[in-house]
Structures are given as C-alpha cells and as structure tokens.
Design goal:
With about 375 residues, the chain is α/β, with parallel strands linked by helices. The chain has one domain (about 10-115, about 155-370). It has helices at about 10-25, 25-30, 80-95, 120, 145-150, 170-175, 195-200, 220-230, 235-245, 255-260, 275-290, 315-325, 370; strands at about 35-40, 45, 55-60, 70-75, 125, 130, 140-145, 160-165, 185-190, 210-215, 270, 295-300, 350, 355, 365. Helix 9 packs parallel to helix 12. The longest helix has 17 residues, at about 80-95. The radius of gyration is 21 Å and the shape is globular.
Length: about 375
C-alpha cells in the first residue's frame, strides 16, 4: 500500500502496551483525556466510489455534515463491540502519538502540526516510569508527570473531538464529568453505570437525532456461550464455576443489566449485531461530523481462529452453560423487547484520506483515491 508517512506494523503490540499502561500506571490512565486535537485536510474531498475489498468494510466520512454529533456506545460483552470501537480508538492514538504524516512526497497531509520521528519519539511505559527510546540521545527514564506533560496533554491542530476508547470504565466516567465542549464525540462504556454519561450536555436533550445512545444486541444464548468461552481462555474449570456461582455473577442476564440497571432503558437504541448497515452508518456519521478520515477496516476483529484455545473441555463448557441456564441467567435477557432501530448515512463526496486497519495488524493513512483505484491492493 502507498502509506502516507509513518504507519504501524504491529497493532497487537500497541494494544498490549496500552493495556499494560492501564494496569500498572494509574496516573497514566487518569491523565488520558479522551479529548484529542487534529487538523482538517488541505486536499478537497473526492467523489465517493464503491469499495469492494473482501472481508473489509469501508466506513465513509462524508463532506458537508456541519451539525454536531455525539455517540454513546453501551458495550455489552461478546456482542461485536470491539469491531465497532477498536478502529476508532486506534485512529485517535495514531493522531495523538504518531499522527504526523508529513513527508517530502506528501507535505500537505499533516494532522497534528508536529514532526513525529518514530525512532526518536516512540515510548514504552513500564510501571511508574517511561523509557524514552531515542536515536539521537541516550535512553532516559522519565516520570509519569513528564510523559503526561510532553505527550498526552499536547494540543496540536485546531480541530478537536472525543473518543474514550478502552479506558478503564470508572476512569471514563470520572474524566468526562468536566470534559470541555466539542462538536463531536464518541463515548464507549463497558460493564459499568453509564447514566452519568448520558446526563452530559452532549446528550441533552436525549431525543435530539444528533445525540445517539446505542448498544449492539446479539442472540442471548450465543452471547452467553461466547462469554463463557472468552473467560475459559484465562480460567480453568474450577475458577469458571466459582464465577458462575458468585453473587452478582457477570454471567447473570448481562444484557438486561446494561439496558435496565446501568442506565435508562428508554434512552438506548438497540441495533442487531447483523445490521451492519446501521452500525456503519453511526460510525460514518461520527466521522463525517468530526471531519476525520474514512476508515477501511477488517469486517471482524478478534475472530475465534485467531484466539488461543479454551482451558476446559467441550463437555465442561456444556456443563458450565447448563449451570447458567439452571440459575436463570438467560431468563431476563430472552424476554426483552429490543425494538431494533435502524440508521442511515449518505453523501456524495468523502474525505481525501482513509485510515486502514488491516488483519495483519498494520495501520496507517492512504490517499482515498488509491482505495478507489482498480489496482488497489492491501499488500
């Protein structure tokens, strides 16, 4: 592919680094404001064309949407939420940390107004300190406060938006209480009370069509079985059973909890997991309002064939599933009237840049005209 400037060749490594940072560096998490800055493209938008890349989806960022748009995603475990959320989160971090795509060949593409040197500026956070790997200087250890000051809180570009991504969820709730106003935003919360987020000015009044709270709904039985498998990749059979039998078990009517116990059910738009047109439309509307690049992403993230095997036998998995059924862990989930909603997003011209997230764990920007070329290849 004709990458514009710096691109990453290892998404998995980046996400693992980010998870470690969240786990071991609480100040780093607390300082990770979901607000980020960027610049508008200097090239004109281009006429939209059909994109047919097998096992990939093209999410257009259309020209001309001047209205604000705010999106709150209630992420229910094992319901396809990572496929929706992760490309946006990666895009944000690319713009924050690795966003400069200035090259001799493409001087006009500059999102953050800084010259990023991947050898000089790449950072690795380890516990309470950060080792800054440099080509021009000796490696040095900086405090968390230094990192925050120099990298995280840096403002670059006159545009701003919000993407919370996969911050620890209570940190998300705490951070957004005093967040500054933006024209667009995307919040993602998971396994926590989300009512306070829905009370933000961004989502008032809730009936405004440019303020959408939604969740993705998967067949309750399929979702529960997938949830058990997911945990069985980390736990043995005894630990899995202990968690099934525990008070307020995570497996107990998880869909119902998110819709009725963590916030106001009447505010949530439920979208069927197979309604990809509506899911693409919501993401497209956010990108269009924020004037961020288009996205070309794998149709599915974290597919089963790419995961490590479960630590229990198929018979034990069946027993665990039957145990959940016997405890009534599907009774509420299977009796919800979801009243599925549909969304559309349309336009004639799209952003001149496209952000690509490949299955081979690479990502970066390409000219959208390259994507529309008959000779386009992901190689």
């Amino acid at each position: 592919m004709n990458w514009l400037g710096f691109h990453w060749d290892n998404i998995k490594g980046f996400r693992e680094y980010y998870k470690l940072a969240k786990m071991y560096n609480k100040l780093y998490v607390q300082s990770q404001s979901p607000l980020f800055h960027y610049q508008l493209p200097k090239e004109e938008y281009v006429d939209v064309q059909k994109v047919s890349v097998p096992e990939y989806d093209f999410i257009p960022s259309y020209e001309g949407m001047e209205d604000p748009f705010h999106l709150l995603f209630i992420h229910i475990s094992k319901s396809g939420g990572t496929t929706f959320e992760q490309p946006l989160d990666i895009l944000k971090h690319h713009l924050i940390k690795e966003c400069s795509v200035i090259t001799d060949k493409y001087p006009k593409y500059n999102f953050c107004g800084t010259n990023f040197d991947p050898e000089r500026d790449q950072t690795t956070i380890i516990s309470n300190t950060c080792t800054v790997k440099t080509a021009a200087y000796e490696s040095q250890v900086q405090t968390r406060e230094d990192i925050i000051k120099q990298h995280i809180q840096k403002k670059s570009g006159d545009q701003k938006s919000i993407i919370t991504g996969k911050l620890a969820n209570q940190e998300v709730i705490d951070l957004v209480k005093s967040i500054e106003d933006t024209h667009s935003s995307f919040y993602c919360v998971h396994n926590t009370q989300w009512g306070s987020v829905s009370q933000l000015p961004h989502f008032q009044p809730s009936f405004d069509e440019n303020k959408v709270i939604f969740c993705i709904i998967r067949n309750p039985k399929d979702r529960l079985l997938s949830h058990l498998k997911h945990k069985a990749r980390k736990w043995d059979y005894e630990e899995l059973i202990r968690n099934i039998d525990s008070k307020d078990s995570m497996f107990d009517n998880n869909i119902h909890k998110h819709l009725f116990e963590y916030g106001d059910r009447d505010k949530i738009n439920c979208i069927d997991i197979n309604d990809t047109k509506s899911l693409h439309a919501l993401k497209s509307t956010y990108l269009s309002s924020a004037k961020l690049p288009n996205i070309l992403q794998a149709s599915r993230f974290n597919e089963g064939k790419e995961r490590k095997p479960i630590n229990i036998t198929e018979k034990q998995l069946e027993e665990a599933f039957d145990r959940c059924i016997a405890k009534g862990y599907l009774e509420k989930d299977e009796n919800i009237d979801f009243k599925f909603k549909k969304f559309i997003s349309e336009g004639q011209r799209v952003h001149p840049l496209t952000f690509v997230v490949t299955k081979e764990e690479r990502y970066g920007f390409i000219p959208t005209t390259d994507l529309f070329s008959k000779d386009f290849s992901l190689e």
